[in-house]
Amino acid sequence: MITKEQLINIGSEKLAEIILSLYNSNISIQKQLDVILASLDEDPKKIVSMIKAEIASLKKSSRFIDYYESGDFAYQD
User: Fold this and answer.
1) Residue 8: its pLDDT value, please?
2) pLDDT at 51
3) What DSSP string runs through 1-30?
4) CA angle, 17 then 76 then 55, to 5°
5) C-beta of residue 28 within 8 angstroms of C-beta of residue 76
6) Measured between alpha carbons, how far is 9 from 20 in angstroms, rounded to an integer?
7) For the chain (length 77 residues), average pLDDT per consecutive 10?
């Protein structure tokens, strides 16, 4: 488990590189960071727009969600 002190010791530039690498390689992390960054702007319209886009995307999806996948799907980020 990584600690706050370890993250501080990494330094902001290296930490930014790590976060950007994760952002570019993982769609779930990308969505989470987009929401976090939108919330920092304190503009609720951005967050509402992002949520509406995600809902629209889910509505268009025709993929079957298996019973065993449904729990993860319900709690996806």
Assistant:
1) 94
2) 87
3) ---HHHHHHH-HHHHHHHHHHHHHH-HHHH
4) 105
5) yes
6) 18
7) 94 96 93 88 84 89 87 75
* Predicted local confidence at residue 5, as pLDDT: 95
Q: How many domains does the chain have?
A: 1
Q: What is the pTM of this model?
A: 0.63
Q: 7 and 15 in contact (C-beta within 8 Å)? A: yes
- Which pLDDT score, from 0 to 100, does residue 12 have? 95
Cα-to-chain-centroid distance, residue 58: 16
* The total number of residues written for the chain in this structure: 77
Which contiguous run of DSSP H or E holds residue 61?
A: none
Q: For residue 10, give its domain range.
A: 4-74
What are the angstrom distances between the C-alpha of 27 and each of 40, 57, 60?
20, 14, 18
